[in-house]
């Protein structure tokens, strides 16, 4: 469950730059080492971490703001999205030294894959994803618990990404509940027609957890919230599960008329709400070859996106199916490119507010959307 959750490297070396590590309830900080590397693969001893490495057990954690069962570690370290220099490295790694696994290893895009020549991550290759030009002032690289990468306002946190088990999803046989789907089943996608599911994962979320941890509570998207008939029934989503917004306002703001926005952003308006007394839920993860937009309860939402991860990433290994089996390594390369631009924070909320202010629908129904068939499901 441990993972690199945020990297702030738009500052001035180690003085204002840092990497954030999130550990799960069963993770032992003594198992994990953070390493900073030069572009040549050697440890960087002058980038803010003495000797180039630090074990998390030597640091003081803080409770995760959304769930105190998780802990956050902040490590001051200078990172560049280019060639390392005297006080900034080009790559950062998190390694479980007990299991001998490199959890996450992110490096400068301009340097290509950096092979660690020493230290805890020795022999592993970095994911060359860090690009300074992707960030605005006040933004950082962030990853959720499943390795999905995005750029957002500097903050702490992690999230889950999934549909609930009873949500009906559109297939060639009509709408079927998520929990009845199997790998290989065809599911309708907005961009590529009917596509086979490669894998299905799940995560049980008991009502007791929601009661104890208010910031884990799901978003309830009410019937007709996005447009008449969209969705055709109340829809539970995890906070970071992205929903398609289709609007001319989006085209004016970001140059695309379709974008994906986390469900939590819709709860700032009158069309959705945080459910303070939700029932037991089972979140489902529907994986395709590509990141897709699918039809769930008449609304267009995203499928699982794995993000630009290394095939050695432990976070991908934390996915489990109904039988408790992990996500097969052969599927680690699936669904890494977003199906639509991803909007978060103030930009997402502004788009929702402006679209509603114009009296426009947030998600007009698809031309071929079989509303009567879905109505029959209910």
From TrEMBL:
Residues 162-307 form the Hedgehog/Intein (Hint) domain. InterPro entries: Hedgehog/Intein_dom, Hint_dom_sf. Pfam families: Hint_2 (PF13403). This is Hedgehog/Intein (Hint) domain-containing protein.
